[in-house]
């Protein structure tokens, strides 16, 4: 009671609003009118979807009040309701980063519809303007350093161009020597093709397009001929896992790993265990899982409010305590054994059940 | 219960064990059809109901700021009563059942929801979802059979205390939200001995319930009236009226779910080792529907489809009406009675039973056969 009185004296209007709204909070009522005004629950509204290629589109999002801006090259997690179910995915921000303190009111993400990708297909083909989406703050360190490097190499393939486009739009004028090697099936499949060719025409970027429909897939070794001074450059690479693995090996072999920055979009291939039942102890749900179902997917499918992040084992946004049983890391097959109060935390997005397990949520 | 139970034969004697398992499979198939088609329309439905309810509540409270004027009092009170009913029934009860968890929206989820009722979400979920829905109509296990203050089945032992049960039921109806809170706290049992009263777990639960009652009382009986200035007293009476209207309505709807004549009860022994088919059968025989308009279904939180709700407690409530014909078809084909009737008739039937069972069983009545989903089937 004393705390109630003290609270009311300090912030009278807010306290009274809270007292009238209970068991809800005043924000629940404000959200009816203006869901974008919340700074705690960051939201956005789709206000334009523009086709880029046959299977890619740029989605412009009006961001809510809490948006703190982004640095070029960063990604944003977007929560989209598809068929009534909320899915979270990460997309690179392709719009220009705002250098001023006041963050811009719009961002764009560019999405390529992937086969069986429920969210990407929804955004490219079905999303309607006016749709409310849920957002996290921008994150990721696939960005240019504040002291801009003299010579830059970008190696991208497919939708791997998206973070690099964000960097070029924001900083191409500050970069003296830029080479962009981009790989796509055909010239028409190049996302931002026209804009990139315009940048090349003005001399801002040396653009080397590689079309895999007519020439063999590019390897890191091809760069020796295409960009002979590659090892002198700071390199940012983004594309399919196979290409990035190849590039990382090549750079390491030549002792240039410290000049390479990579960004991966895809989950590592599943090398799970045997599967088995997982119990979500506080929620009270138990589900049987196969060898290729992660704990995160199993929980989400059972309607458990699973925390999640990058969904590829990087950000640790999904970790939960493993109270009993065992799980297997899909990346290397390593088994982690749980214990009731030992605080064993596992990354649910890259763990499958090894026999059976209990997760504390 | 009596109508069927006073018959010399059980209502399910004609079913073989195989029949019961087939019935279970048919109901599983109905459930799967709904699971496979859950989607955007359902999500839009619950969000629309929530939005409408919050708008109605905010609007009604705004109108009540001027409740000194009789039309404002009437409109505001009616609106607030309807908003409170929607909030408890179609939204709160169903969200806390996990019917909308599949949307993965943390704002509409069984683990995060709190409702405008004296009982805390956590305690209500335990008493309702775990105890009542698991042990539906099992004498000695399902406290919802008379809430510990009434005798609503011949097989519950009579004591002189039950002479007053029509009065207890009337008081419970008026104060229903507090009745539920006391029931969820197992207040009678926990206050009985000094040891139970001192139990830290009980004390913590009691404290959280009292804190919640305090907050809601402060809202309805202090802050909102004070904000109304000269209309303070009339706003207080409006809020009191809305709470009582909500209590009476929810009490009536809930009485109709398991108390009307025709509903079966079960003994604890009969549910041991129950199969899925037998579990379904118990839910089918232990629940009763209310027939009526779409508005009535909405305001009852679709508990008017009590049978469908008990068969599939976690399916979205907006789908119960849709599957009701298929469920009734299963009843018909397996020769079972689908108990239903208009609200007034069902409420009267439930009240009649409360009054009739306030005195001891009639010793001259013939021996009764109780439906025991399992034993009868085994015998057959």
Give a verbal description of the structure.
The complex is a heterodimer of chains A (361) and B (380). With 361 residues, chain A is α/β, with parallel strands linked by helices. Chain A has helices spanning 2-10, 12-21, 26-33, 118-126, 161-171, 193-201, 223-226, 241-253, 295-301; strands at residues 43-53, 56-63, 75-82, 85-92, 106-112, 132-135, 151-157, 177-184, 206-211, 234-239, 260-264, 276-280, 285-289, 319-329, 335-337, 345-347, 351-359. The model of chain A has no long low-confidence stretch (mean pLDDT 91). Chain B has one domain (2-379). Chain B is built from 17 helices and no strands. Chains A and B meet through helix 2, helix 3 and strand 4 of A and helix 3 and helix 10 of B.
Q: What level of helicity do the residues of chain A show?
A: 10-25%
For the biggest sheet of chain B, the summary is: none
CATH superfamily of the largest domain in chain A: Nucleotide-binding domain of ferredoxin-NADP reductase (FNR) module
Number of domains of chain A: 4
Number of strands of chain B: 0
Class based on secondary structure composition and strand pairing of chain B: mainly alpha
Which CATH class of the largest domain in chain A?
Alpha Beta
Instruction: Describe the main β-sheet of chain A briefly.
Output: 6 strands, antiparallel
Helix and strand pattern of chain A: HHHEEEEEHEEHEHEHEHEEEHEEEE
Q: Looking at the structure, what is the overall shape of chain B?
A: globular
């Amino acid at each position: 009671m004393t705390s109630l009185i003290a609270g009311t004296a300090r912030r009278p209007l807010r306290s009274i609003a809270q007292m009238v709204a209970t068991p809800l909070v005043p924000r629940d009522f404000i959200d009816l009118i203006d869901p974008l005004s919340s700074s705690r629950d960051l939201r956005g509204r789709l206000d334009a979807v523009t086709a880029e290629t046959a299977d890619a589109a740029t989605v412009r999002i009006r961001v809510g009040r809490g948006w703190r801006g982004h640095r070029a090259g960063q990604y944003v997690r977007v929560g989209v309701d598809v068929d009534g179910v909320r899915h979270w995915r990460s997309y690179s921000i392709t719009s220009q980063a705002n250098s001023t303190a006041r963050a811009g009111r719009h961002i764009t993400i560019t999405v390529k519809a992937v086969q069986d990708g429920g969210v990407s297909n929804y955004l490219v083909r079905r999303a309607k303007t006016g749709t409310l989406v849920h957002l996290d703050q921008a994150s990721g360190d696939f960005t240019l350093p504040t002291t801009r490097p003299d010579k830059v190499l970008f190696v991208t393939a497919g939708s791997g161009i998206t973070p690099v486009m964000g960097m070029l739009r924001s900083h191409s004028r500050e970069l003296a020597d830029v080479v962009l090697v981009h790989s796509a099936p055909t010239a028409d499949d190049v996302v931002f093709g026209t804009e990139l060719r315009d940048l090349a025409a003005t001399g801002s970027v040396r653009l080397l397009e590689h079309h895999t429909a007519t020439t063999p897939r590019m390897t890191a070794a091809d760069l020796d001929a295409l960009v002979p001074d590659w090892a002198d450059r700071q390199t940012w690479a983004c594309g399919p896992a196979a290409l990035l693995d190849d590039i990382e090996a090549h750079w390491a072999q030549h002792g240039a790993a410290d000049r390479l920055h990579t960004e991966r979009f895809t989950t590592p291939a599943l090398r799970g265990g045997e599967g088995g039942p997982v119990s979500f102890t506080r929620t009270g749900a138990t589900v049987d899982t196969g060898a290729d179902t992660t704990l995160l997917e199993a929980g989400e499918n059972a309607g458990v409010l699973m925390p999640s992040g990058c969904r590829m084992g990087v950000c640790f946004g999904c970790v939960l305590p493993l109270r009993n049983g065992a799980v297997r890391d899909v990346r290397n097959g390593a088994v982690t054994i749980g214990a009731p109060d030992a605080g064993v935390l596992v990354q649910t997005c890259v763990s499958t059940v090894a026999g059976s397990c209990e997760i504390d949520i | 219960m009596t109508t069927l139970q006073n018959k010399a034969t059980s209502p399910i004697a004609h079913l073989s064990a195989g029949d019961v398992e087939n019935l279970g499979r048919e109901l599983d198939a109905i459930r799967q059809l709904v699971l496979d088609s859950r989607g955007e329309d359902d999500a839009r439905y619950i969000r629309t109901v929530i939005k409408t309810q919050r708008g109605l509540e905010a609007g009604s409270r705004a109108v009540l700021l001027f409740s000194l004027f009789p039309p404002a009092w009437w409109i505001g009170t009616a609106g607030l009563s309807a908003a409170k009913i929607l909030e408890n029934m179609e939204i709160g009860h169903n969200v806390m059942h996990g019917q909308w968890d599949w949307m993965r929206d943390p704002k509409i989820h069984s683990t995060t929801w709190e409702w405008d009722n004296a009982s805390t979400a956590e305690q209500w979920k335990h008493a309702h979802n775990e105890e009542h829905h698991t042990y539906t109509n099992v004498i000695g296990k399902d406290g919802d059979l008379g809430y510990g203050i009434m005798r609503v089945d011949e097989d519950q032992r009579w004591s002189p205390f039950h002479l007053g049960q029509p009065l207890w039921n009337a008081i419970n109806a008026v104060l229903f939200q507090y009745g539920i809170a006391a029931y969820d706290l197992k207040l009678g049992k926990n206050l009985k001995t000094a040891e139970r009263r001192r139990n830290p777990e009980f004390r913590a639960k009691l404290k959280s319930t009292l804190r919640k009652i305090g907050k809601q009382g402060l809202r309805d009986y202090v802050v909102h009236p004070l904000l109304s200035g000269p209309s303070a007293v009339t706003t207080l009476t409006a809020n009191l009226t809305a709470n009582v209207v909500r209590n009476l309505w929810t009490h009536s709807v809930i009485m109709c779910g398991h108390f009307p004549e025709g509903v079966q009860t079960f003994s604890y022994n009969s549910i041991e080792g129950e199969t899925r088919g037998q579990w379904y059968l118990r839910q089918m025989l232990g629940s009763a529907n209310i027939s009526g308009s779409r508005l009535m279904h909405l305001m009852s939180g679709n508990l008017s489809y009590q049978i469908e709700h008990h068969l599939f407690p976690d399916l979205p409530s907006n789908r119960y009406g849709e599957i009701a014909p298929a469920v009734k078809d299963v009843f018909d084909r397996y020769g079972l009675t689908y108990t239903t009737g208009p609200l007034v008739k069902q409420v009267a039937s439930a009240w009649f039973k409360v009054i009739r069972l306030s005195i001891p069983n009639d010793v001259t009545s013939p021996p009764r056969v109780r439906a025991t989903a399992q034993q009868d089937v085994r015998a057959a």
